[in-house]
Specification:
This protein has six helices and 16 strands. The protein has a six-stranded mixed β-sheet with strand order 5-4-3-2-1-14. It has a six-stranded mixed β-sheet with strand order 6-7-8-9-12-13, with helices on one face. Helix 5 packs parallel to helix 6. The longest helix is centred in the first third of the chain and has 14 residues. The chain starts with a strand and ends in a 12-residue tail after the last strand. The structure holds acetamide (ACM). The site of acetamide (ACM) has 7 residues, from loops.
Length: 268
């Protein structure tokens, strides 16, 4: 299959209201119907600004919990790959996680956020999955996931690209603007497509307010913008991509950004 259609969903999850967020996500899935891959924001099911581990524990669920099972049924029915941010409860630990719900598989692949941001450090355990890439034979695409603040670490996208990611999905709750400079560079320097599903709205907890910046975007592997949402829109962005074109990292007959690497000179 040549082309792949990718959607990012932008909305404002309501803190502490997973059923309501699920209902919003199901409604937005209808607008994402033409897409093969649909990416939702970080912690889309729960909202973001947790203040304690107890609060996370009250909303966290296992990867095979009822809300994700409901979304997985949609993935099978719609023949879509869904990528969903949620608070995960696993082995007595709490993770800021993203589930990859695949149309042809019972298992749920989970990425657990590696680099925790701000008060997440007080509320979640650091992710232990490492960066993983999933091949989906039905659409012959390799998808890697990083979550929001992972963007600050070039090692994240590079590790995914070295494992063969052709599309990096980045569920996000971005509260700054610097990422708009950096995300297209992550796409360009790794020759991968990159899709950022950011949220909108604000959350005020214990007198502190976080404002989420929207502007979800899908970038071409050459770093150009394929599409971008507004700051406050509830919307679904859709772009056509060609994952197979990222499989060679050459950009002229003599230069190849992976073959030309000199890891023996890198201190990481
Ligand atoms: C973030 O990692 N949610 C900024």
């Amino acid at each position: 299959m040549a082309g792949l259609r990718v959607a990012v969903v932008q909305f404002a999850p309501v803190f502490g209201e997973p059923q309501r967020n699920l209902a919003t996500m199901l409604a937005l899935l209808d607008a994402a119907r033409p897409a093969h891959v649909v990416i939702f924001p970080e912690l889309a099911l729960s909202g973001y600004f947790f203040q304690s581990r107890q609060e996370v524990a009250a909303l966290a669920q296992p990867a095979d919990g009822p809300l994700l099972q409901r979304l997985h049924r949609e993935a099978r029915w719609r023949r879509q790959i869904l990528i969903v941010g949620f608070p995960e409860h696993a082995n007595g630990r709490l993770y800021n996680a993203a589930a990859l719900l695949l149309p042809d598989e019972e298992r749920v692949v989970v990425y657990r956020k590696t680099h925790l941001f701000y008060k997440e450090k007080l509320c979640f355990d650091p992710g232990d999955t490492g960066f993983l890439v999933v091949h989906v034979p039905a659409y012959d695409v390799r998808i890697g996931v990083m979550i929001c603040y992972d963007w600050r670490f070039p090692e994240a996208a590079r590790t995914l690209a070295l494992q063969g990611a052709e599309l990096i999905a980045c569920p996000s709750n971005l509260v700054t603007e610097a990422w708009e400079i950096v995300m297209p560079v992550r796409a360009l320097e790794n020759k991968v497509y990159l899709a950022v599903a950011n949220r909108t709205g604000a959350e005020e907890r214990n007198g502190e307010r976080l404002t989420f910046r929207g502007k979800s975007a899908i970038y071409h592997y050459n770093g150009t913008l394929l599409c971008r949402a507004g700051e406050a829109d509830t919307t679904v962005l859709i772009a056509d991509i060609e994952p197979q074109r990222t499989r060679t990292k050459a950009f002229d007959p003599l230069d190849d950004i992976f073959a030309d690497r000199r890891p023996e000179h890198y201190r990481l």
